[in-house]
Design brief:
Layout: H1 2-8, H2 10-13, H3 19-39, H4 46-62, H5 67-84, H6 96-115, H7 122-137, H8 156-166, E1 175-176, E2 181-186, E3 189-194, E4 214-218, E5 221-225, H9 234-237, E6 249-251, E7 272-279, E8 282-289, H10 293-296, E9 298-306, E10 312-321, E11 330-337, E12 342-346, E13 351-355, E14 361-367, E15 370-378, E16 386-396, E17 401-410
Antiparallel strand pairs: 1-2, 2-3, 3-4, 4-5, 5-11, 6-11, 7-8, 8-9, 9-10, 10-17, 11-16, 12-13, 13-14, 14-17, 15-16
Helix pairs in contact: 1-4, 3-4, 3-5, 4-5, 4-6, 6-7, 6-8, 7-8
Length: 413
């Protein structure tokens, strides 16, 4: 990262500097690149390894004696791309912010090779095209990113700049089976759902236990969100990874996958099954995960339906018994709201009224659980934690199957 920053900003702070300063800088670059050449991969994996390889390639392209550094960096990159970039273009860490970080690094490497008259490897070009399409998949209507597995909104103009540098305009698919996300888009409504297993060991340091969590935006406004991640505040790092910080179901205030205190995940990981169908313009998802099977003998089943005009999102969350255990377990289904959404509990109507900053009004109703409105916190914009609200559907499991039906409908203009 240091090498990339020095070389990327060279014109700003060194091009017009005194000769001795530039010589000292080149000596420092050579010393660090030589060290990187011999120690990499140095236990690095995922996006961190791509950033280190980028520094080595850039140093090799810019330094008069750097050919061996460039070749070593490219060799590391080409060898590891199949492990990091999944067939659908998703990055193995399943983190939208890491997706844009890795894509930006790959685009910088390609640009540097072109500037040096060197043909980039075809695998690098293929990775850029696939990752760009997936980055479009993970954007909300406001241009920012969904908040899964430690990702933040990021700034829309920065994402757009990266996409423009990628070239091409490959449209995102509706389904990303390898990375494990689904995208439901109808009318002005967009629903993104995490329906994949947690990242594998080695790529799970920032991973969250947010299996089957959903986010929803309407036009350029976010309505339902996950809490996100506040990287600069260690006090939040444990809390933000929990299942309760996501818009999904939690049993017994227990995470759907085991989270380790130092980062990463333990042996208990949710396995996920996802089925998608479309009929007359309506979109359906049928989702299962096994994260609570070992602890409670329960399987979480989530059904989602989005109407053709996007004004009606319906869901059903079921907890199904898998063995003979009959212990009752408390559960909660959470819908975290964006800070700019104002919520009001309508006790007489058994609903929550949601109003966006632009004046859109939606009603959330539920059957099979107690509906309440509670405080929440939003960490998605990266600046500082912001107070927000959450709708909570709570109850206790029944003997064989517990079912909660809910709906989110837009008020007619």
């Amino acid at each position: 990262c240091r090498l990339s920053s020095w070389l990327g900003q060279y014109e700003f702070f060194a091009a017009s500097a005194e000769l001795e300063f530039r010589r000292s800088l080149l000596r420092a670059i050579a010393k660090q690149a030589e060290h990187l050449q011999w120690v990499l991969p140095a236990g690095l994996s995922g996006a961190d390894l791509v950033t280190a390889a980028k520094g080595l390639v850039l140093a090799g392209c810019c330094h008069p004696k750097g050919e061996s550094w460039r070749d070593r960096g490219l060799a590391l990159l080409v060898a590891d791309l199949p492990n990091q970039i999944l067939p659908d273009g998703g990055h193995v860490e399943r983190n939208p912010s890491r997706q844009v970080q890795v894509l930006r690094d790959l685009v910088d490497i390609r640009a540097c090779l072109h500037a040096g008259g060197i043909e980039p490897p075809q695998s690098l070009q293929d990775a850029i095209e696939a990752m760009a399409a997936m980055l479009r998949f993970l954007r909300h209507g406001d241009g920012g990113l969904a908040l899964f597995n430690g990702g933040r909104e990021e700034e829309g103009w920065r994402i757009e700049t990266v996409l423009q540098r990628c070239g091409g305009n490959k449209r995102p698919r509706a389904v990303a089976p390898e990375i494990g996300f689904q995208r439901l888009h109808a009318g002005r409504s967009l629903v993104l759902v995490d329906c994949g297993a947690p990242p594998p060991p080695g790529a799970d340091r920032l991973a969250h236990a947010g299996t089957l969590a959903l986010e929803m935006s309407v036009g350029r406004e976010r309505l339902i969100v996950n809490c996100g991640a506040h990287w600069g505040n260690p006090a939040w790092q444990g809390v933000q990874r929990t299942t309760a910080a996501h818009s999904t179901l939690t049993v017994g205030e227990t995470n759907s996958s085991c989270l380790l205190s130092g980062g990463g995940m333990g042996a208990r990981r949710a396995a996920v099954t996802a089925e998608r169908s479309e009929e007359s313009g309506a979109l359906w998802l049928n989702l299962f995960h096994s994260g609570y099977a070992q602890l409670f003998g329960l399987r979480h089943h989530r059904r989602l339906y989005l109407a053709p005009d996007g004004t009606d999102l319906r869901g059903e969350d079921c907890l199904e018994r898998l063995d003979g255990r009959t212990e009752e377990q408390p559960f909660a289904i959470r819908f975290h709201l964006h800070p700019e959404v104002r919520a009001e509990l309508l006790a007489d109507d058994g609903a929550v009224r949601l109003k966006t900053k632009a004046g859109q009004v939606w009603y959330l109703r539920a059957a099979g659980a107690e509906l309440s409105l509670e405080e929440s916190v939003y960490l998605g914009d990266g600046a500082h934690p912001r107070p927000s609200q959450q709708v909570v559907l709570s109850g206790v499991t029944a003997d064989e199957q517990t079912s909660v039906k809910w709906g989110l409908q837009r008020e007619a203009s």
